Amino acid sequence: MTRRRLVTALLVLAVLALFALPLLLDGGAEYAGTDGQATAVIEESGYRPWVESVFSPSSAEVESGLFALQAALGGGVLGYVLGRLRGRRQAARPARSEQLPADDT
Amino acid sequence: MHIAEGFLPVPHAIGWVVAAAPFVVHGARAVATEVRERPESTLLLGAAGAFTFVLSAIKLPSLFGSSSHPTGTGAGAVLFRPPVMALLGTVVLLFQALLLAHGGLSTLGANAFAFAVVGPWAGYGAYRLTRALGAGLLPGVFVALALADLATYGTTSLQLALAFPDPASGLAGAAVKFLGVFAVTQVPLAIGEGLLGVLLFRVLTVNARPELERLGVLPPEPTPTEERA
């Protein structure tokens, strides 16, 4: 049980470190998105897009808000599902632990 | 990996729609069958879609001062096999094309082919291979998610190279150029995505054991599941 927790903590730390370290190491970088870099490479060749997006967020703030909305929707659903699954397991547990008193730990 | 709206010449745009469409239609059928035959899978199906939804919304800083986003399509491919992700991934791309001006309708075919077809299949293939070599579920999940991510960006690079071959060095030169933009940035993100997948599956193996057994991801346990929290 404690070992399981330790592994979880280490995994979370590794993910955080992986994305925090680049930010700490070269603070001056702009972190331009690779999608944008690719379109810049294409435009260098003189190509111009032949159609515009149906709807473009009017500012960077609105755009990041919409991205946050996407993440929130996904995170909300994911949290709901994992919460339900965990609740289901815990609801099933007391019935069993009455039969087997000291099974855990 | 989102090719921006209008950034593929018309013949390429049409070609990729034709290439991706059968996979997406087949994927829609696979989702319908899954929901009809195993209604208890619906929760996990939601989780797989949601995982891709979150991960593809978050642009993360990477080495060399650029940023990009993971894909998250490997998780659903491991759980439900790749066809299901062809539909779920395309839904994510459609949302981003319509509301975020990220990707586009004219490039939806190409983006769906990279994100919702090649990524999940590459991840699933890598998963099956690692499991066949005797590795456990979690190493398999790590490899699946990392490779689905990398394969998607590799495909995007090749799609762009096909559309915009370098005047001097041709197709190969253009491929190297676009891989230079995408691949290097993507490696740390793919590793991070693999680790996130391992975290997700650690939660699922404890809390969704019956579903994972029914999906064939975990072998059925003969005795009623011993709680190992």
From TrEMBL, chain A:
Record membrane topology: Multi-pass membrane protein
Localization per Swiss-Prot or TrEMBL: Cell membrane
InterPro entries in the record: CbiN (IPR003705)
Pathway: Cofactor biosynthesis; adenosylcobalamin biosynthesis
First-listed, main subcellular location of the protein, grouped into a coarse class: membrane
Transmembrane feature ranges: 64-83
Keywords assigned by UniProt, alphabetized: Cell membrane, Cobalamin biosynthesis, Cobalt, Cobalt transport, Ion transport, Membrane, Transmembrane, Transmembrane helix, Transport
HAMAP family: CbiN (MF_00330)
Subunit (UniProt): Forms an energy-coupling factor (ECF) transporter complex composed of an ATP-binding protein (A component, CbiO), a transmembrane protein (T component, CbiQ) and 2 possible substrate-capture proteins (S components, CbiM and CbiN) of unknown stoichimetry.
Function: Part of the energy-coupling factor (ECF) transporter complex CbiMNOQ involved in cobalt import.
Family, per entry: Belongs to the CbiN family.
Listed name of the protein: Cobalt transport protein CbiN
Species annotation: Geodermatophilus maliterrae
Lineage: Bacteria, Bacillati, Actinomycetota, Actinomycetes, Geodermatophilales
Gene that encodes it: cbiN
Automatic annotation (TrEMBL), chain B:
Key words, A-Z: Cell membrane, Cobalamin biosynthesis, Cobalt, Cobalt transport, Ion transport, Membrane, Transmembrane, Transmembrane helix, Transport
Pathway the protein takes part in: Cofactor biosynthesis; adenosylcobalamin biosynthesis
Localization of this protein: Cell membrane
Segments traversing the membrane: 13-31, 43-64, 84-101, 108-127, 133-153
Membrane topology: Multi-pass membrane protein
The keyword Oxidoreductase is assigned to this record: no
Superkingdom to which the source organism belongs: Bacteria
Coarse class of the protein's main subcellular location: membrane
Keyword Nucleotide-binding appears in the UniProt entry: no
Quaternary structure (record): Forms an energy-coupling factor (ECF) transporter complex composed of an ATP-binding protein (A component, CbiO), a transmembrane protein (T component, CbiQ) and 2 possible substrate-capture proteins (S components, CbiM and CbiN) of unknown stoichimetry.
Record family assignment: Belongs to the CbiM family.
Function: Part of the energy-coupling factor (ECF) transporter complex CbiMNOQ involved in cobalt import.
Name recorded for this polypeptide: Cobalt transport protein CbiM
